[in-house]
Amino acid sequence: MTDFATTKALFHLPEGMIYLDGNSLGPLPKTAATRVTRTVEAEWGEMLITGWNKAGWMAQPSVLGDRIGRLIGAEPGHVTTGDTLSIKVYQALAAALEMRPDRRVILSDNGNFPSDLYMAEGLLRQLGSGYELRVVDPDQVADALTDEIAVMMLTQVDYRTGRMHDMADLTARAHAVGALTVWDLAHSAGAFPVHLARDGADFAVGCTYKYLNAGPGAPAFIYVAPRHAERVQPALSGWLGHEAPFAFDLDYRPGARIERMRVGTPPVLQMAALEASLDIWDQVDLDDLRAASVALCEQFIAGVEATCPDLVLASPRDAAQRGSQVSFHFADGYAAMQALIAHGVIGDFRAPDIMRFGFTPLFIDAGDVDQAIAILGEIMRDRLWDREAYKIRAAVT
Amino acid sequence: MTDFATTKALFHLPEGMIYLDGNSLGPLPKTAATRVTRTVEAEWGEMLITGWNKAGWMAQPSVLGDRIGRLIGAEPGHVTTGDTLSIKVYQALAAALEMRPDRRVILSDNGNFPSDLYMAEGLLRQLGSGYELRVVDPDQVADALTDEIAVMMLTQVDYRTGRMHDMADLTARAHAVGALTVWDLAHSAGAFPVHLARDGADFAVGCTYKYLNAGPGAPAFIYVAPRHAERVQPALSGWLGHEAPFAFDLDYRPGARIERMRVGTPPVLQMAALEASLDIWDQVDLDDLRAASVALCEQFIAGVEATCPDLVLASPRDAAQRGSQVSFHFADGYAAMQALIAHGVIGDFRAPDIMRFGFTPLFIDAGDVDQAIAILGEIMRDRLWDREAYKIRAAVT
Fold this sequence. Notes:
The structure is a homodimer of 397-residue chains.
Chain A: H1 4-8, E1 11-12, E2 18-19, E3 28-29, H2 30-47, H3 51-54, H4 60-71, E4 79-82, H5 85-98, E5 105-109, H6 114-127, E6 132-136, H7 141-144, E7 149-155, H8 167-176, E8 180-184, H9 196-199, E9 203-207, E10 220-224, H10 226-229, H11 268-281, H12 286-307, E11 312-313, E12 325-329, H13 333-342, E13 345-346, E14 348-350, E15 354-358, H14 366-381, H15 385-396
Parallel strand pairs in A: 2-13, 5-6, 5-7, 7-8, 8-9
Antiparallel strand pairs in A: 1-3, 4-10, 9-10, 11-12, 12-15, 14-15
């Protein structure tokens, strides 16, 4: 059994704050500061250029990739880290499209994170005429899978509502029409158990600054299924994805398997913070995590619905169809969220009217949820947001 | 007058080490550890998600871009930072090619850093048939500029020999045939004054972990000339290059000027180290730097030629044609370099036979150069490398 009281003690959480925004930026693991300082002072400072080998900087992207791999059900040796999520989306999408040269359509949905759609637009413009990005409603994806589709690119969990796609089902449907799949795990990795290998995913990408708690600007990750790993042709063919980066050949030869999805030099300081955050994850059983996450979300939904009749649930009521967040519609949601933040409960707001709360058992417990419900209830009852919103607006201008 | 004794005291240099490899990875600015720790503890730890605005993380890529801009002669507001150099090469190249839709050839030279050529290969494969990457000898570039050339992509300073291209001259020649230019400043920025605006460069890219001393994995930078800034169409169209990232529109609209060359979330911890390194650069006059760099290089060439007759100068003898490094050919260069490193003088080796030494007046002075010459002379005279190379090989296996 994972002991979440123990994991909670491993995070620095500001005094008096209930942080329900770990789905946007996870909090600081207490060891991260020491770990980063070690990298700065003892590695960069003392080893200088030899740190690439001596401190393991060069190998770290794939060493850490494997530790993430356990959390997302990937086969060992098939995940690497680096760059940003947008870059990794581009890599996965370009590689998948190149494997379906007779097809021209990327299928996605309007619940996808916009940057994924933007990256697809940019890629398709490079590829020239005849290509199409087809964006449908989330519940229309299954029906839109036809033999025109080269790649189905989806973010598994909707960043606004927490609505979760069924990865196994949609992947099987995509494969049935000959399409490949790119899954964005931004709101999945560290939120619940993901089973990339079991569910047959072809490509997956994600970030590490949300549920994985690796800090602002933490590197992204990418997964390529073993059956494709030696066939993909990197579009972003940088030297660290080369078979022999230090041979300095003039021609590109892709590296072995996932190594070819590396591009430039890894962000060593960010990697150190990621390592500290993964030290905590190594202690977590993901089934325990899911059970605790569902309990916290259910507790929050029940409590808010009992005390705040004006808030309308925007997330699926069925926990099986929900990630690790709960969202409510409320017309004055922006102002109410500012008031809530001013009272020490941190969630966030997404246009036009969504108040969003992330539940992360690693550092949020039932007592925090009770308190958050009580404070939110008080704000809604006394309509505290008008006054508070005004205060905040005044502070900004 | 820049006081280089003062700047030297601002770096942590390991006891007894003469570090002539700042052209590969610059040393640690003493304030960087404190600066990074502040970002980890006081910003990430205490501000959490609000750090994006409160700590200035969101604006930092372009704020720091402008401070780099001064070092490379860019107009304010036209440099931004992020990603890796390979990614920035791809962005610049894709944007430049799209501005010359009737042309199909990228011209480069075989002294370019291989990753730049690899990224061009990957891009051209996306663009489809008819495109060509034409790679000539460095001294053939001017003659190879014809009206077929869409983009001339060059690294200004050869990473092996330090040979420097004449940016003003080649840019003018490229423009005369209607080509655009992409200059890679990896071995230029912080090595000597660069004059992008004066010399008419169209695009420029570079890294900050070499002469700029921003640490392992430090972000790259990109420059787009003001006359092109609102015309370029980003191929890597990520949300932070969007006109309104937090509107979460489904369609991409490029941001203002250089902001559109941002892609994903910035590497905040690496940015903190970059900020510390730029605090030192703010004190440096680049003409003083160039004068001091030339003096150190001349001193080293004269000293080595006097004491090591087996070493043959690989760099241009004329300082005006040389960056801030000096290289020598020597058949046993790899082993000799290992011996030199074992004796506390850090340079590096590039196949097949190049011993490479970087000179960075910010933390290397004439006394260091004298010592380096003396130690290298001793190693060469006593042929110390056989024994040392054996020791090192034994340690590796």
